[in-house]
Write a structure and sequence with these properties.
single chain, alpha+beta, Glutamine Phosphoribosylpyrophosphate, subunit 1, domain 1, 2 domains, six-stranded antiparallel sheet
């Protein structure tokens, strides 16, 4: 089992009609690491919304002909998804489009609402009919409901933010405006930039800005609503400061691309510092340090620099396996196809193997077996995160403790189970080294939730409904 994040969002606002679909395509491509389940683009052509979305990778869903079918437009919003709430069906593809009495809107969202089940129940009792099982449709319903009484779409969104709780970095497009917002705790990242021709671009990560030639301007503040319109850029901050900032620390450990900068902190540097912490807290006599591609590589380099033990590329990842890959029946063979050990690097060596996390331990065990087969003499595994001990309600697909190996076994027992000579984790009290000592959320490691824990997530109930629809 691997850890996955919910999605990435991307938006465009231009002064005059541009090939907005192409810009979204390249921006979404840069955010593909945040979601490989589905993707979509909605272009605004003078108030007419044209969209295309489907299951699959960006390169699979959008062909040259598909992109050519989009008109030029002054606005667009795009989304890549890995579902934490809701099954993998076309109904859950985003952006979600809504036609209502006061106009149209398209919305793309990153994160999970901690009060989603409560809100959904209330909406259903009032007559709402849901077509998906994602939190995003809940947000769309609430914003639409508020819009019927609010003087503007941004006022409607502001009123909705008084109702929503949990994680949401979102982009909302109306016929005349592109609006982005980040929840008051800032669980998920969101930033914006501008190209040389004045086109404004909003994205989950700064790496997507560079992919379309936009210069980073700043991060969206927790609680901020930023409105892009023909009148320029307007910031509303009535929700700022309502809660303490809590950016998910696992963004630095795993989710974000290493060339991104989140809230002023380089992801690459954060992972180097994780490796440095591991070297300080887990000194090991070894011949070489290797990382598990991709997010373990920077931490391995950091460990090497701090310890003086040489860094090597010991595992090669097959980068050409997409969603259409036909997996072998024997799951152990999947690791061999996706990863390969370099025998000349590991044979006869004492190896320090660094990975970003251990969830169930099955994947780690298969990687260790690969290295043993390649002749590794000793394998000492270090993890650039603390043990996962608690569910996450803010956009990571750890919804219960049932699948968490660290909840049932000690460190020494896990080491024996995955076949390593020793095992060590990043100390939970050193997570501040990764986040640059800024405020962060580490609830999945320490159980200190920054918002009320939902009694009922409703997830299994929603997915059961969806599976019945599929049948």
């Amino acid at each position: 089992m691997s850890i996955h994040e919910e999605c990435g969002v991307f938006g465009v606002m231009a002064e005059r009609p541009v090939n907005a679909a192409a810009i979204c395509y390249y921006g979404s491509y840069a955010l593909q690491h945040r979601g490989q389940e589905s993707c979509g683009i909605v272009v605004n052509d003078d108030g007419l919304f044209v969209s295309h979305k489907d299951l699959g990778l960006v390169s699979e869903v959008f062909s040259k002909d598909t992109l050519a079918a989009f008109p030029n437009g002054t606005m667009a919003v795009a989304h890549v998804r890995y579902g934490t709430t809701g099954a993998a069906t076309r109904n859950n593809c985003q952006p979600i489009e809504v036609n209502h009495q006061k106009g149209r809107m398209a919305i793309a969202h990153n994160g999970n609402l901690s009060n989603a089940a409560e809100l959904r129940n209330a909406l259903e009792l009032s007559g709402a009919i849901f077509h998906s099982s994602s939190d995003t449709e809940i947000i769309a319903y609430i914003v639409t409901k508020e819009r019927l009484a609010a003087p503007s779409i941004e006022d409607a969104l502001s009123r909705a933010m008084n109702i929503l709780d949990g994680a949401y970095s979102l982009i909302l497009m109306s016929p005349q405006k592109l609006i982005c917002a980040r929840d008051p705790r800032g669980f998920r990242p969101l930033c914006y930039g501008r190209t040389e021709d004045g086109t404004c671009v909003v994205a989950s990560e700064s790496c997507a800005l560079r992919a379309v030639g936009a210069e980073f301007i700043r991060d969206i503040a927790p609680g901020e609503i930023l409105i892009f319109s023909k009148d320029g850029v307007t910031s509303r901050r009535e929700h700022c400061g309502k809660a303490r900032k809590r950016l998910c620390v696992f963004e630095y450990i795993y989710f974000a691309r290493p060339d991104s900068v989140l809230d002023g902190r380089s992801v690459h540097q954060a992972r180097l510092d994780a490796g440095k912490v591991l070297a300080e807290t887990h000194p090991i006599a070894a011949d070489t340090v290797i990382g598990v591609p991709d997010s373990g590589l920077d931490a391995a380099l950091g460990y090497s620099r701090a310890s003086g033990i040489p860094y090597s590329i010991g595992l090669i990842k097959n980068k050409y396996i997409g969603r259409t890959f036909i997996a072998p029946e024997d799951r152990s063979d999947q690791v061999k196809i996706k990863l390969s050990a370099i025998k000349d690097v590991v044979a006869g060596k004492r190896i320090i193997l660094i990975d970003d996390s251990i969830v169930r331990g099955t994947t780690g065990g298969r990687i260790v077996a690969l290295l043993r087969e390649a002749g590794a003499r000793e394998i000492h595994m270090l993890v650039s995160a603390p043990p996962f001990l608690f569910p996450c309600y803010y956009g990571t697909d750890i919804d219960s403790q049932d699948s968490l190996i660290a909840c049932r076994h000690s460190v020494s027992e896990i080491a024996e189970m995955i076949g390593v000579d020793s095992l060590g984790f990043l100390p939970v009290e050193r997570l501040g080294d990764l986040a640059g000592n800024a405020d962060y959320c580490s609830a999945c490691f320490d159980g200190r939730y920054p918002s009320p824990v939902p009694v009922d997530t409703g997830k299994s109930r929603f997915e059961q409904r969806l599976s019945e629809q599929v049948k």
